Amino acid sequence: MTVVGGQPLYGTVRIPAAKNSVLPLLAASLLCEGTVRLCGVPRLLDVEASLALLRGVGCEARRKGSDLVVEGPPQRCRLPEQEAGQMRASILFAAPLLARLGRVETVFPGGCCIGARPIDLHIDGLRQMGAQMQPGGAGRLVLTAPGGLHGVEYTLRLPSVGATETLLLAAATARGRTTLRGAACEPEIVDLADFLNLCGARIEGAGSPVIRVEGRRCLMGTVFAPLPDRIFASTIACAVAAAGGRVKMEGCRPVTFRPVLGLLSQMGCTVERAGSRAEVTVARLGRLHGVGQVSTGVYPGLATDAAPLLAAALLRADSPSSIRDQIFERRFGCAEGFARMGARVRDEGRILHIEPTRTLCGARVEAPDLRGGAALVVAALGARGTSRIEGMEYIQRGYADLGDTLSALGARIA
């Protein structure tokens, strides 16, 4: 992607369905008898990989216009290695296959290189529910549940989104009752629970630290619209802060990315909320200010995925800032690209220090990961001259036509 910076952004953006909701919903479709239809899903590389996982275990999974249609049941317990190995979310398919077939074989999940992303909480919780780990060879994961999965009282030692999703998927059709304590509270957890309940599950408390599930023998298909992508909305908001201008974002409730909006307001942007409507307008006309020290955290704190995006917007602020990521130890791989553009940054792994920089200059940079790549695009919008961002395959994992979206707002992108 080639970006010519210095062009303010103006217009309106409709926020698409959230990748971080669509992927667990596709995994959940394995639990359903009948057809599942997910409405308005963007064409993302991670979505296509998830469809390949479903087809690999014998389901019919296809696009129909902007919707996804999945029909089961699964016939095979072995997930395709290539797709399973390339994305973190492939672990979410393990619990539904255990529930339906009593066995799952896969490789350990991959994804962006942003730090350790262990799956021990997933495995420990599944073991408590009756799963057994079998020898599988180097890099392989084999789980069986010869007696089926059963309900359990389980306390997560940390509020992992992925582990909460795995155990929610396992509990939906397990025998008996499950109580999850210390659960993640993210909106994507609520979306997954809403979907499962529409399919016939009985889940209470999603969005709180305690979730209770009454297992059901069978779930049915349904039609469902995944929630809008709060990280996509954060990306557009930070792009406006970096480039200047005024953009209205429709469809995404401001409360879901309130920490980003609050920090942008602190930086000198204007943030206008439209009452109870899922709409917010972000504008930046003057100078940007630093925000001092901020940290990411579990929801409703600042999302780890938003940290590099916010950092990109802060590069030209008139006072220092530092962002600490509490989740991943290598979140700021984009710092090297920032430095190539002339930014004064210091990457200490979990902490990125940002000093005032009067001018950023276009440069050739490489996306280190999904959100780091998007952050480089945001930084390029605020730079003088032309930037070339390599590694677009990372960005395309979570953004469909990001260049077209920004071009429609006035950015010069090729």
From TrEMBL:
Its main location: cytoplasm. Keywords: Cell cycle, Cell division, Cell shape, Cell wall biogenesis/degradation, Cytoplasm, Peptidoglycan synthesis, Transferase. The keyword Cell wall biogenesis/degradation applies. It holds the Pfam family EPSP_synthase. One of its GO terms (biological process) is regulation of cell shape. Residues 5-406 form the Enolpyruvate transferase domain. InterPro entries: Enolpyruvate_Tfrase_dom, Enolpyruvate_Tfrase_sf, MurA_subfamily, RNA3'P_cycl/enolpyr_Trfase_a/b. Its EC number is 2.5.1.7. The keyword 4Fe-4S does not apply. It is an enzyme of class 2 (transferase). One of its GO terms (molecular function) is UDP-N-acetylglucosamine 1-carboxyvinyltransferase activity. Pathway: Cell wall biogenesis; peptidoglycan biosynthesis. It catalyses: phosphoenolpyruvate + UDP-N-acetyl-alpha-D-glucosamine = UDP-N-acetyl-3-O-(1-carboxyvinyl)-alpha-D-glucosamine + phosphate. GO terms for cellular component: cytoplasm. It is found in: Cytoplasm. PANTHER family: UDP-N-ACETYLGLUCOSAMINE 1-CARBOXYVINYLTRANSFERASE. NCBIfam families: PRK09369.1. Belongs to the EPSP synthase family. MurA subfamily. This is UDP-N-acetylglucosamine 1-carboxyvinyltransferase. It comes from Faecalibacterium gallinarum.
